[in-house]
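Hi L.,

You mentioned the student needs an example of a multi-chain input paired with its predicted structure. This one should do, with 230 residues in total across all chains.
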Amino acid sequence: MERVCYNVNHHETVARVREKQLAEDQVRDVAAIFQAMGDPTRVRILHALVQSEMCVCDLAAVLEMTQSAVSHQLRNLRNLRIIKRRKEGRVAYYNIDDEHIKTLFETGLHHVSHR
Amino acid sequence: MERVCYNVNHHETVARVREKQLAEDQVRDVAAIFQAMGDPTRVRILHALVQSEMCVCDLAAVLEMTQSAVSHQLRNLRNLRIIKRRKEGRVAYYNIDDEHIKTLFETGLHHVSHR
DNA sequence: ATCATATATGAGCAACTGTTCATATGTTAC
DNA sequence: GTAACATATGAACAGTTGCTCATATATGAT
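Structure written out for the whole complex:
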């Protein structure tokens, strides 16, 4: 990496913040969670699921998107344990995985609604 | 859009969730906030700024990244009003924009640390 | 004025992402 | 068994993103 800064301006701050840096896997995991919530389609899916457990077919109807597109996104969210699936015959019901996720999502929603 | 679902399985649920759908700009805004927090570099930047106001040069030192890369990301975050800038001479100091953002970020961090 | 430093930014490019399309898998009804 | 339905998934393709590199702008020191 090139030398871009000839002297660190605030040695004490840099040292202190360096010490408390997050572990690589923490950074990866938190970024993955936020990234998953950072897409309009997935926001709409999560907002729907906060209100009610829903099957793929119903979600596609609400979002007015293809079953395939919705299913792909549900897989993304499920892989990250943001939502969970319950199967009943041929119907798959999706739910927010836990209360923490619900809280996190609603905190973000609350933020944009109040500014 | 093709017909993928021959009968909506749960009319009542679909109708109820449809009614409470988010407005398009709410969806866009909340997705943008989460998306901005959904990148490892920006997570590290935010985690640093939660601890202390920092200048670009110091952030680059902590992250061990080029000044240019950091500056580009700071612009992204500032455009979304996630961080704010304070100028003092030729030095630009960055800060988390408000307490809501700090809370949102820490809620996400807390989530991945406790599972 | 010139030089050094701090930050900002446009272009370019490789990597990633979200949708579509086609198709596969699995379940229910007959 | 076959047909209808619900969901899942791989490939492909366009659009987006994050970094690098080069360069621009702006301030402070001399």
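You could point out the following to them. The beta strands of chain A are 54-55, 83-88, 91-96. The helical segments of chain A are 11-19, 24-37, 40-51, 56-63, 67-79, 99-113.

Best wishes,
N.
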